[in-house]
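Reopening this one. Same input as before:
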Amino acid sequence: HWMRTTAAAAGCLEIIPGAGGEELCYDMQFHLKEQKWMGWFDTLEKYVLVPGTPFADIAVPTIDTVRSSYLVGILLENDWNILCCGATGTGKSVVINEKVGKNMPDKYMPKSMAFSASTGANMTQDTIDAVMDKRRKGIFGPPTGKKMLFVVDDLNMPAKEEYGAQPPLEIIRQWMDHQGWYDRKTFEVRTIVDIAFCGVMGPPGGGRSAVTNRLMRHFNFIAFTEMGIS
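Same output, byte for byte:
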């Protein structure tokens, strides 16, 4: 309604799709190359299921997954960390695995991590350090010319310690605040460059905890809603 009202006031209502109210702005995408509004499925190649594909690997695109995948790509390609939130069964992991694992430009290298109640800060730091190359003294990162995307499943699963913090999340927050951490053997600062985080988590409850705002403030949120019948 706001978009149509604003367009009408500017005298360009005719370029806004769905003038009769049958469509929402969320149902369309403005295609920059074509300079026109297009349906989300109009931007994709026709989906063809390859015979023999394992059932677990079948991902049929829906308007919700296409929209979410588009947002994930736009944010990651512009160096933003993202956090995908939603209840179980809303397609968070499917969208992230399809987009980050298969449909990002060649410069991006995905690395999956899965948190549990027993995950610790040292384990998280070691997992990230293990895939970093030394660029120069004190500077570490993925191979030159690449950017590594860490996909963290069940981000809010780590157990809280006695003071209420979740150590694996605090080491990630430390990187987001200070771009690095200390080497636990040499006590030298390790600056980590050219990485980004893509978190996936469900709402608090059932072993999942509420995440501190000190970490949440670094993410752009994408909410995954329950799938409709259509």
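So the earlier flakiness isn't reproducible anymore. For the record, The chain has a mean pLDDT of 87.
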